[in-house]
Amino acid sequence: MHRKNKVISRQNSLIHPIVKNPFLHRLELKWYDKLKIAVMAVTVFPIRVLLVAILLLLCWPCAFIAVWGRRDEDKLEPLTGWRRSMRHPLIFLGRACFFVMGFHWVCVRGSRSSCEEAPLLVIGPHSTCLDAIICFVCGLPSNVARAEGNATPLFRTLIEVTQPVFVSRDDSNSRVSTIKEIRRRATSDGKWPQIAIFPEGTCTNRSCLISFKPGAFYPGVPVQPVLIRYQNRLDTVTWTWDGLDV
Length: 246
Description:
Protein name: Lysophosphatidylcholine acyltransferase 2-like
Domain Phospholipid/glycerol acyltransferase: 120-231
Pfam family, one: Acyltransferase
Distance between the termini: 42 Å
Family: Belongs to the 1-acyl-sn-glycerol-3-phosphate acyltransferase family.
Pathway: Phospholipid metabolism; Lipid metabolism
Largest sheet: 5 strands, parallel
């Protein structure tokens, strides 16, 4: 059977569709959901926190070995040889961290492009720090990180092994230098690992994609889009609560 297309008048076609506020998130819990939270807060949650802490402590020696003895001038070049091979145990431990946090199954559709085919991974929508799981799924690529996150001793070593491109909000020249560094790595013919970028630049409730920052597109090289979906019944991962009015 042929289905007739619905005809929209010219006047109605000019009306913009109603878009849900991407910075507003409300979680309506039923009484049994609250009961589950109360029970798991004193049973499962402490065990998961302990296991995550143990796995993070196991990650640190691997990261320390990978970056040990590197001079400042060495940081301008990618990790190679046995240093780069330390990524494999880090990927395993990282996936284990997310497993004990409840991410028991990660379904990947499609295939990941190589560094030569697509030097940049453009990931969205961005809604939580738990989106970092995509980095372990994609083989621990580099990313664009805030320079302020490099201050914690434990996480500084873990972050350094990914060789991120640091950007500082306090430095007026940081944006230009970040773009130059992304371009330098993206045009290295696969010498550097892929760079993972969340182009939205902030967290939303995943109801839509907001405007992209142009940083990932300045180098003019192919990018691979990566879509993240959480299929849990309750959206307990979104960070935004009462954000901007739109």
